[in-house]
Amino acid sequence: MSKPLVFTRRSQLTEFVQNTKARGDHIGLVPTMGALHEGHATLIRRSVSENSVTIATIFVNPKQFGPSEDFGRYPRPLADDLALLESCKATAVFAPSIQEMYPEGFKTSVRVPDLSDVMCGSFRQGHFDGVCTVVLLLLNLASAHKAYFGLKDFQQFFIMRRMCLDLAHPTELIPVATVRESDGLAMSSRNRYLNPEARQKASAIPQALAQAAKLFLNGERKAEIIVSKAVQVLSAEKLQPQYLDLRDLEALQTVVGEIQNEAVLALAQPMSVPNGSCRLIDNIVLSTNPFYRGILEDLIARTT
Ligand code: PAF
Question: What is the CATH architecture of 5-176?
Fold first, then answer.
C-alpha cells in the first residue's frame, strides 16, 4: 500500500491537479473535516472505485462554526486520518492551515438564501454560508470530475447541489447513503463525545426514523401521523429534538397535509455529555425510489 501524498499549500494541490488532468486521469474529491470514520471510508472507497485519482481534504473550517460551537475541541487525529486514507487507497490529501485557505484579505462569502435559513440553518446562523464558501473553494482548487458527500448532512448536500446548479459548476456531486452503526445510529465524528448513557439514549434517534419509515412504506402519507410517530419514540427516551421537520424535496418547504411524492424527515438532537453538550443530526428520505427505499429497509432491519 502506498501512502497518500500530503499537500498543505494550495499551489501544491493545483499543480498536482494540472499534471493529473494532463495525463487524462479522472479526479474524485472527498471533502472532510477529518476525525475520519467508516462513513468517510465509504466515500473514499466509492471515489477510488469510480476515479483513477482520489483527493481527500481535511480542514476544520472555522467559517461554519458559531461562536459557542465546538470548533476548538473538534477532534483532529491527523495520524489516524492518514492511516485510514492509506488503507482506503486515497491518492492524495489536502490538509491546509486556516491561513492557507483564507489568506489575509479573504472577503468572499457564498450564500444560498432560504434553503440555508431553515432546519439546521435556523439554529446555526451562518453555518451553511461557511460550508458553501469552503466547498466552492475546494471544488475550484481540486477541479474534480466528481465530489462525494454523505447524506447524513442532507440539507448540506441539498444546498450544495443548488449552489453548483446555479453557478454552473462542472463537478458532479454524488450523494452517498449514511453509514450506520449496528443499532442504526448514524456515524459521526461527534459520536465520540457520547458517554455510554448518552450513546444508549441516542439509539432512539434511528428508532424514531425507522418507525416513521415503516409507516411510509406501509402507505401512510399524512405528515402529522408520520411526525407524531417519530416524536413519540423520542419522547419515550426523554429526547426533545431542536427540530423534527418533514420537508419537500423541491425547496425544503414544510409538508402540510400529505406527502405528495417524496419528502425528507430530518432532526437535530442536542445530547448532554460530560463536558457540555453535543448535537446529533439524522434524516431519512421518504421515497419509493429504489435507492432511498433500500436505505429505509436497511434502517428498519437495524432497529428491530
Ligand atoms: O460535511 C463536512 O464534513 C463539512 O461540512 C465539509 C463538507 C467538509 C465542509 O467543511
Answer: 3-Layer(aba) Sandwich (3.40)
